[in-house]
Automatic annotation (TrEMBL):
Keywords: Membrane, Transmembrane, Transmembrane helix. This is Integral membrane protein. The keyword Membrane applies. The chain crosses the membrane at residues 20-39, 51-70, 91-117, 143-165, 186-204, 224-248, 275-293, 305-326, 359-379.
Amino acid sequence: MLSLRLVRGGRPLVQARRLLVSAASAGTGFLLLAALGHALSHDGAASSVRRLAWCLVPLGATVYVAVAVSRTDPALRPERGRPPYGLSSRGMRLLTGTATAAFCALGSVAALLLFLLGRGSLSVRPLGDGAAKALGAGFDVPVAAVLTLLALVPVATSVATAALAPVAAGQGTANATPDATSAPPGLPWGVALLAAGFAVRATLGEGTAGLSAKALAGRGGVPGGVVAGWALIAAGLAVAGPGITWLCGRLLQSGHPGAVRLLAGRGLQEEARRIGRPLGVAVAVGAALAAAYGGDATYKATDPLTALGVGLVVGCAAIALLLAAVESRQARTDITAALAQSGTPAATLRTAVAVRAGAVLLALIPLTWAVTVLATLPVGH
């Protein structure tokens, strides 16, 4: 009952974030059901399995944004070192997972309605006969398969958010907070994963780029080495993101910095663990999009399912990055207020924010280009 009250309550902005999770769940659920419809209307099992397997990409993006939203939900965050509502840490994790599952279940219901409308199962075909045929119109839909596919998103997101919920572990957790001046430990591991991804793609991949936009919807032969390589590249960027962001802050403070560079560099170092991972994911998505749409000039992005899948991944990455920026700004409210009270001009604070953003862009844009080039080098046979 408490989870249902949380779903109904909250400010409009909080509800908008929750509805974004529901929308991502609806899109992923519809892609899963579309893969089922394709399997019903086609005899080739390999292509249907490939379509279903590629749905794991938007599924992972949905889980990712659901975790980001739950971590910034004021109703699901511990206050003053203790879980709210008098719950234990275990109870708070259960509450977080249940609330997230409720948001995603709403999206799954919307996906089912859209799927049935597209098939013409509700006596109307607003998407046209072509879409109805692609969704398996005229074939009986197995109820068990539909329920299983629709349950994937709520179950996956609830487990992930419950496992990663920001619950308080005790009164001593404040002392365990890492020092902002210390570098995040993930940079060497991220570089190792990146190198492994490039090596796997070069060793086991075939052709040139190997990744095209139409492959995102499960069409076209994509070597397994390309898929595994890109998965390692994405993981490496996500792990290395905090370290890269911290290094940007360190470089801003190098030489003989003034007040603006000191504030900007120190701020980046303090925010590295919070915004670094979403920045790394954004670089991975940008590099994958550049490789997909730049490596196959013959493809025209006219397939609605392809557009939906790509839009889901890009949208989830952007939302998670925006939420991390908002969370970072909220976390620095006390520091900003203290600087203002000490006489720091407001223009200096605004300039420091702009310098931080510029330093991140100057670092990540070339990194995105380099990853794209290295990941799409021609593979020798």
